[in-house]
Design brief:
By secondary structure, the chain is mostly helical. It has a single domain (15-76), classed as 434 Repressor (Amino-terminal Domain). Helices cover 50% and strands 0% of the residues. The longest helix is centred in the N-terminal third of the chain and has 11 residues, at 15-25. It is elongated.
Length: 86
């Protein structure tokens, strides 16, 4: 087996961008995500554009609606050190 070689990081993704990317991958509009989460569409727009912080409770709410772990949203650029990777 060849040695593991991590992929090169090509793009920095902000918290808001991670929300937008996951929303768009699931073909949801901001209005549809608003209906799923109970979070106003204007707040979703502000989060995606970096005008307000996501916060832990909203991250949990978005994670349930977007079917992902909250850490995917809160820490989009986090990398696990190789010696710690499973």
């Amino acid at each position: 087996m060849k040695a593991f070689r991590p992929a090169k990081k090509r793009v920095e993704v902000s918290v808001g961008e991670s929300v937008r990317i996951l929303r768009e991958l699931q073909e949801l509009s901001q209005s549809q995500l608003s209906e799923l989460t109970g979070i106003p569409q204007a707040t979703i727009s502000a989060i995606e554009n970096g005008r307000i912080n996501l916060g832990v409770e909203r991250a949990k709410t978005f994670a349930r609606a977007l079917k992902c772990h909250p850490a995917v949203l809160v820490f989009p650029g986090w990398e696990v050190p190789l010696e710690r990777a499973a």
